[in-house]
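Progress report, Aim 2. The chain analyzed during this reporting quarter is listed below.
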Amino acid sequence: MSETASRKFSRVLDILEKNSNDPARLIPILQQVQDDYRYLPEEVLTFIATSLDLPPAHVYGVATFYAHFTLVPKGKHILKLCDGTACHVRGSEHILSALHSRLKLSAAKHTTDDMLFTVECVSCLGACGLAPVLVVDDRVYSKVTPEAAVEIVDKIVAEEGGVPPKAASISTPKKEDAIV
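Predicted structure tokens for the chain:
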């Protein structure tokens, strides 16, 4: 392998080495690579296939079979909005609209240009009694309103060093609203 390729894939090489270059550990390898890159770049999948002596179609097939994996770059902060029956009935579509408006996203565009946020609408988060539910990274927010969702985003933007736009008088989500 050339020095340039070695440098470009050094993180992947470390992951492969930690997994003993074992093809049977393909899923944990892909999970670790995705944790590192926040998605699975095509050239990395090919590199993994070559390194493990697997057909690229096999590696790609595993990466596209499991919903956990993504071939599209995601933002640093993942917002998962439940749109299951209970959340939908309690207004999740209004929350999604508010998030799209605040982050300049759409049904076709899920990640902000600065790669800070990705908004995903999911079928169910299994927290129907807390509907509507928004999970930001690993933090669960219950009984979310559109205003509270925007306030959560603005707080993250401020923590990241950005300046959120002037917010209307929206109450900040309380710690007790988050389930940790």
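The first strand starts at residue 77 and ends at 82. Helices lie at 3-8, 10-18, 26-37, 42-52, 56-65, 85-89, 92-103, 146-159. These observations will guide the mutagenesis work planned for the next reporting period.
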